[in-house]
Amino acid sequence: MFELQHKTALVTGAGQGVGAGIARLLAEQGALVAVNDVDAARADATAAKIRDAGYPAKALPFDVTDYDQVSTEIAAFERKTAPFDILVNNAGNAGDGAFRPKPFRAGEPGEWRRFTDVNLFGVMNCAKSVIDGMSSRGHGRIITIASGSGVMGQAIGVSLYAAAKGGAIAFMRHLALETASEGITANTIALGMIDPATSGRVANHTRKLAARIPVGRTGSPEDAGALCVYLASDQASWVTGQTIHLNGGSYTS
């Protein structure tokens, strides 16, 4: 079960952290994985680690917020290598800039766009670039990594990020219904708190929040990767339009 032999997957934002874990687990199940990141060096390093472990991977750097770049790079990869059967929209957070939580009132309109560009429009850009091919072949898996912040209110200074993630969740629900008859599934994973160390960050303000997680630990890239493997597999062909909460039992409503 959950084998991905002869499948090709694109994982965005996979140069580190959750994305790297997802890419690795998909490759371990047999998929050829295109490792995307806005930082080419990170994409190369992650792809090399997967290959060194004996699994297939190629680096595919581009900026998910630039539709022309996204569509060009994806089309070139599909011509030279293989069409994409699986898309995991993992690129997010604050894009290639630092994420500094702050209350909405403390921010400025000039800061808004960078959150929607990567967390919402980045998802749309990548989906648009693969969806026609998936439809013509009668098979596709689109998985978007969102956040619990997109479905519940939190007074922790993430309103802009949450608004963009909430938009992505709504988009995926509609995309699922538009494409269900074409063999394509579209699902969202609403992630809870992931260990910041997996992306090279220090767990400063997250420590108190982490202490409240019922299972007693933060999440790992492998937790997210395992769920992506399932959703990408043939065994998940009857699962679409869902927002699945992966959060160690944290409150979600």
Q: What form results from the Cα inertia axes?
A: globular
Order of helices and strands: EHEHEHEHEHEHHE
Which class do the helix and strand fractions yield?
alpha/beta
The total of beta strands comes to: 7
Strand content: 5-15%
Strand count, sense and barrel status of the largest sheet are: 7 strands, parallel
pLDDT below 50 for ≥5 consecutive residues: which ranges? none
Chain-averaged pLDDT: 93
Q: How many H/I helices? A: 7
Helix content: 40-55%
Short description:
The protein has helices at 17-28, 40-52, 67-80, 112-137, 159-179, 207-210, 221-232; strands spanning 8-11, 32-35, 57-59, 86-89, 140-147, 184-191, 243-246. By secondary structure, it is an alpha/beta fold.
Describe this structure as you would to a colleague:
This protein has 253 residues and is of the alpha/beta class. It is 40% helix and 14% strand. It has seven helices and seven strands; from the N terminus they run βαβαβαβαβαβααβ. It has helices at residues 17-28, 40-52, 67-80, 112-137, 159-179, 207-210, 221-232; strands at 8-11, 32-35, 57-59, 86-89, 140-147, 184-191, 243-246. The chain has a seven-stranded parallel beta sheet with strand order 3-2-1-4-5-6-7, with helices on both faces. Helix 2 links the parallel strand 2 (32-35) and strand 3 (57-59). The longest helix has 26 residues, at 112-137. It is globular. The mean pLDDT is 93.
